[in-house]
Specification:
Layout lengths: L6 H6 L16 E2 L2 E7 L2 E4 H8 L4 H6 L3 H23 L6 H36 L7 H10 L2 E10 L2 H10 L6 H11 L3 H6 L13 H9 L5 E7 L2 E12 L2 H27 L11
Antiparallel strand pairs: 1-2, 2-3, 4-6, 5-6
Length: 286
């Protein structure tokens, strides 16, 4: 929950609420929590104090543990209770506007709870699959992968949606051998706005971290040699390998662990595709 209370606001409330002593007829405990104050016969308890204090920043939490801070914070809670009491006395909690706001909040909280429940359920499944070895990755697996791919590759790339245009651009780039010149073509012809702006810059990748259709030819290509076009679901790729660097095992192991985990998850999802019925409803494109 967002921390919205401030020390200035708390301090400003020290004189906001009248000081009121508890009478002997008033109970000193409510719902098993000590009563700190009453507003129009409604109790403010230590549980209310603790709940509100939990929304403070750490420094303010320390402040309300002091004698003066505690007194100020109780005054703040009294002020809040006074405002709520007055709003209810005026019937504002019965207005259509207020009810609509509350309905919207309840729907948002319901959706957020459902999202959180689904996240927790998926996380529990993945943890279980990791523990039983389905998704778990051993040190030997990481080392074996590192033997095959101890390097990372850096390419520049841009994508052209139309295949005929991609072929025409490839002809124009036949003699391009510099990353600077490649970047010029990316800015001029890319249909990808990010590549158009960056000149095709991409983060380096270990084989397994990017698209296999690009990784294999990139690994086998020479430096500063234009490759393409290669068609994927994203479009027609034109790229140039601008660097290849060997990594130490310590540099690569965490990234390789993630690669293998993702590969195992893909394999598990494929098994679920066969296990459960899946049907995709065609959308009306009219």
């Amino acid at each position: 929950m967002k921390k919205i209370l401030t020390l200035t606001l708390i301090l400003s409330c020290v004189a906001c609420a009248p000081k009121q002593e508890t009478t002997p007829q008033e109970p000193l405990v409510y719902n098993n929590s000590p009563v700190l104050a009453y507003v129009d016969n409604e109790p403010i308890t230590q549980a209310d104090f603790d709940k509100a204090a939990n929304n403070l920043d750490d420094n303010f939490k320390k402040f309300v543990t002091t004698k003066s801070g505690r007194a100020n914070f109780i005054s703040f809670l009294i002020s809040e209770k006074l405002l709520l009491t007055d709003a209810k006395k005026r019937g504002l909690d019965l207005t259509p506007q207020y009810k609509a706001e509350i309905t919207a909040l309840e729907e948002a909280q319901k959706a957020a709870l459902e999202t959180a429940k689904n996240f927790a359920l998926r996380r529990n499944l993945l943890e279980s699959l990791t523990q039983d070895g389905t998704l778990g990755v051993s040190e030997d697996e990481i080392k074996e992968y590192y033997k095959k791919y101890p390097y990372e590759i850096t390419i520049k790339q841009f994508i052209i949606s139309d295949s005929q245009k991609a072929a025409d651009v490839m002809k124009q780039m036949r003699n391009v051998r510099s990353s600077t010149k490649f970047a010029d073509f990316a800015r001029q012809f890319s249909d990808d706005p990010i590549a158009k702006k960056s000149g095709g810059e991409m983060p380096p990748f270990i084989p397994g971290e990017y698209l296999p259709q690009i990784e294999v030819p990139a690994a086998n290509s020479k430096l500063m040699e234009v490759q393409g076009f290669i068609t994927t679901a994203q479009g027609n790729h034109i790229f140039m390998k601008i660097a290849e660097k060997r990594l130490t095992y310590n540099e690569a192991k965490n990234r390789i662990k993630t690669i293998i985990e993702n590969q195992k998850l893909d394999s598990y999802l494929n098994s679920l595709n066969k296990k459960y019925n899946i049907s995709i409803v065609k959308e009306d494109t009219k």
